[in-house]
Amino acid sequence: MMWTYQNPVKIVFGSGQFAALSDMIAGRSYALITYPDSPFGELTAQLAAKAGQPVLVINDIAPNPDTRLLAVQSARFAELPQMPDVIVALGGGSVIDSAKVFAAAAGNFSKVLHFLQTKTGEEALSAIPIIAVPTTAGTGSEVTCWATVWDEENSRKFSLARKVLYPEVALIDPALMLGKPYGLTLATALDALSHSIESIWNVNANPVSARHGVAAARAILRDLPKLLVDLGNLELRSNIAEASLNAGLAFSNTKTAIAHNISYPITLGWGVQHGIACSFTLPTILQSVIGTGGFREDSLKAIFGEDLSKGADSLTAFLKQLGVGHRFADHKIPTGSFRGIVDEAFAGERGKNFIGSKESFLEASHQRGVI
Length: 371
Hints:
With 371 residues, the chain is α/β, with parallel strands linked by helices.
């Protein structure tokens, strides 16, 4: 079997490492992408005291970055005398994804939108270096080369994918995640769980990505319930942050698969949080890939045990324990919408990454009472 694995991002991990961010900026001019509320104002002041003032601060980042707001924000770069040497992304996945869009746009979002809509014009895009400092444990965007861009007006979702958009550094400081509330901690960690498992039942999987995926999934299944009843526990925060990083290193090589493709219309149409929308179908999908064989099935068994049917049951119970139902109705999605969502998902790009079939998924859905 021939395979390759590649990830060029330098990773710095450890509690208190935020203090080293100014050294990574290393005297370069920088734009800061972050949020306006606490504790980000305080972190911005700490950074400016050591690294100098940023040439631009964009702190009105919204969840699920949308084309209309991204266009307005990108235009602020065009008002600068010159582009910054580096972009610092301090925040969750939406902040890091937005930073990648700004890095590609260099003040002109229209060329990014053209590329997303037509898959042409990549040569016109820019690539300002990025330092990613995630403050949630979930998206793995700090070690991938793509960004999710939403077009809510037209109910569409794009992926901006370019090798030059890998951040130059991912600085992961679990202490920055200590103040995150229950709901955000849950949703982001379940996003990471989905990334880890989706990287395994994936046509692009390789033995190295699978090892990262197994490590991530086992840690989340072990430690997330503990963290959710002890949100101030730095050791558990560190474990989930490392798991999210491993999940990112896994799907940075594979991209996601069918669970994510099913999730997008559910988020757009019914407002289900992304981490919930892409995780509640995981037990059904696991049931549907039993018998796949090879290192992929071996990897799934390393997570869920030799009997993957019982593993699907345990995963359902795990989600239920956290208040996440496995049925579409549990998320207010009408039964009549099920088949259209599934058909569209299997026809899409991420659906084609999946090693299983629509027929096996539909059979598993009936077996597990999903609809």
